[in-house]
Amino acid sequence: MTLRKYLVLLSIVVFGSTGDSFLARGMRDVGTIDVHHLPDLLHALANPWVIFGIFSLLAFMSCYMTALSFADLTFVLPATSIGYVVMTFLGHFWLHEHVSPMRWAGVVLITAGVGVIAGGPSRTEHPPTHAASPESLQERQ
After folding, report:
1. pTM of the prediction?
2. Where are the domains of the chain?
């Protein structure tokens, strides 16, 4: 993997974590909404934190699609799950959410799992397939 590819994976973590945190912050300002009441939803979409969250998550999706173009899903998803750790820290220190000891234990397990995944290959290698050329098909007949 190249430095550029590692930066794409890092971007997934950063944009996903910040996007979710911005949305959470914005929805605290907005309060409870019901999707059956369109004005409430539109009011939520006007909140600056929600707007920042949406744009961060659009950047996340762009980076995620890029990562899937050069690596397997079974590598990208676990490798970027460190974002859950980042979100836990953002939730605790920025949003002042309570994080129970059980959740902190989950953070430790996620971190260990990311370490295991990062050591493996990013792409599944498939044996080359030999496509039948027109000449070989004529020889068989």
Report:
1. 0.78
2. 1-70, 71-124
The phi-psi region of residue 96 (left if phi > 0; otherwise alpha if psi is between -120 and 50; otherwise beta) is left
The helix (run of H) or strand (run of E) holding residue 11 is helix 3-30
Contact 52, 22 (CB under 8 A): yes
Task: List, as one string, the DSSP characters of 12-68.
Answer: HHHHHHHHHHHHHHHHHHH----TT-HHHHHHHHTSHHHHHHHHHHHHHHHHHHHHH
pLDDT digits (tens, 9 = 90+) for 12-35: 999 999 999 999 999 999 988 887
Rounded to an integer, what distance in angstroms lies between the CA atom of residue 6 and that of residue 1? Answer: 7
Burial class (CB in 10 A: 0-12, 13-18, 19+), 61: middle
| Per-residue model confidence as pLDDT tens digits over 83-129 | 989 999 999 999 999 999 999 999 999 888 887 876 767 777 766 66
Q: Are the C-beta atoms of residues 78 and 26 closer than 8 Å to each other? A: no
- Residue 46 confidence class, pLDDT cut points 50, 70, 90: very high
